[in-house]
Amino acid sequence: MNKIPSKRVINGTYGAVWVNGEKWLDVETFEGKVVINYEDVNMPGDGATHKKMTGWAGEGTMTVKKVYSRGSALLADFVKRGQIPDINIVGKIADPDAFGAERVAINEVTFNEFMLMKFEQKTLGTEEMPFNFADYDPIDLISA
Predict the structure, then answer these.
(1) Counting Cβ atoms within 10 Å, is residue 108 exposed (0-12), middle (13-18) or buried (19+)?
(2) How far apart are CA 63 and CA 70, in angstroms?
(3) Residue 79 belongs to what domain range?
(4) For residue 1, what pLDDT is reported?
(5) For residue 2, what pLDDT is reported?
(6) Fewer CB atoms inside 10 A, N or C side of the chain?
(7) Please, what sign has the CA dihedral across residues 73, 68, 114, 18?
(8) Residues 6+ apart with CB under 8 A from 117
């Protein structure tokens, strides 16, 4: 039986994120995922509950180290005017020991909230930025 060498497992240290073309060097964690929506389908004479896809929703979250006022700088003025800016995100992970790199473009991003201010004594600051999206394009995928 073949084994996969442990050095081939992707290390998140080599991840990077670009928001509207600007590389954010302060990103600590990043996650973008697609949640598939289903409705139950019942068939006569069959006790199983089957599923029919009815759509999908894109959601994710990004945590940044509190170096800049990321959320406020990106959203505050727009939100006060009752607008949402056009936001696109590109995520990339390229561990030099892995079998390749992975890159995805996430489009039509809407951030759900942003932090005006948060701090805790003797604690490094972070800002969590949950978001949704309506389109995505895998650019590079790792394959066997």
Answers:
(1) middle
(2) 10
(3) 6-140
(4) 62
(5) 85
(6) N
(7) positive
(8) none
Question: Which amino acid, 39?
Answer: E
Half-sphere exposure for 84 (CA within 13 Å, toward CB): 12
112-126 burial, b if ≥16 CB within 10 A, otherwise e?
eebbeeeeeeeeeeb
**Total count of domains within the chain:** 1
With respect to residue 1, please indicate whether it lies within any of the assigned structural domains.
Answer: no
> Does some domain include residue 88?
yes
pLDDT mean by block of 10 residues, the chain; 144 residues: 87 94 95 98 96 98 94 93 96 93 97 94 96 97 86
Is there a domain that residue 83 lies in?
A: yes
Confirm whether 30 is domain-assigned.
yes
The pLDDT value given to residue 143 = 85
- Residue 28's contacts (CB-CB under 8 Å, 6 or more residues apart) are 63, 64, 65, 126
Distance CA 92, CA 72 (A): 24
CATH of residue 68: 2.30.110.20
